[in-house]
Amino acid sequence: LRTLVEELIKDPRIGGVVGRTKVEEGRTLTEQYYAQSDPFNFERYLNSPIVPWGGGNNAYRREVFEEVGYYDAENYTSGADAEFHYRMKTKTNYVMKYVPEACIYHVARGSIKEFFKQGVKYTHDGVLNRFRCPYFSRNYDHYLLKKTKAIVINLMGFWYRLLKLTIGQETELRVVEPLFDTVTLVGNIYGYLKAQMAISKTFKKN
């Protein structure tokens, strides 16, 4: 926290700072799989037009909240942090800064059920967030077809890796990766359909 605050003090143009969040290595295969996916790594998006700032390792100036309001937790069960950044970006002259030296560790998720629930939640909320706010510009065109193809590829990959495991050319973690991916993908599909139904009901009410 001290490292984040120091960055805010250095430059008055900086409205918010985000640190690095890593995942604990974990002991079980599910925990190891989650850790190596590195889900909170913003570095892969730093050169993108839109960086999905968020997570629990960040800090903002009080003036930012005074100008744009607080997190909209009522409408955004996930993505409230990114939507807040959108308001800061469009309504103030402040900028964000990434501070990898400010590092925290996230507990590794430990079950297939959690992977499914995560897949449902992120896709469901992602579709609804895009419906509410233009900042969430992820492309959901042909989403079901893409996810179905990915499931088929994963299942083929599982059997191929399992065969390699029997001859000592693969690790257990690599073998189960496609299965864990598939669980998340099934959750993605369910979340997408659930969100589309919610949007349809909204239009009917209006």
Summarize the structure.
By secondary structure, the chain is α+β, with helices and mostly antiparallel strands. The protein has seven helices and three strands; from the N terminus they run αβαβααβααα.
Describe this structure in words.
The chain has 206 residues and is an alpha+beta fold. It has 2 domains: 1-110, Alpha-Beta Complex (Spore Coat Polysaccharide Biosynthesis Protein SpsA, Chain A), CATH 3.90.550.10; 112-206. It is 56% helix and 12% strand. The protein has 7 helices and 3 strands; from the N terminus they run H-E-H-E-H-H-E-H-H-H. It has helices at residues 2-10, 29-37, 62-68, 80-91, 112-132, 143-166, 172-205, and strands spanning 14-23, 58-60, 95-106. Strands 2-1-3 form a 3-stranded mixed sheet. Helix 2 (29-37) packs across helix 7 (172-205) and helix 5 (112-132) packs parallel to helix 7 (172-205). The N and C termini lie far apart (45 Å). The model has no long low-confidence stretch (mean pLDDT 89).
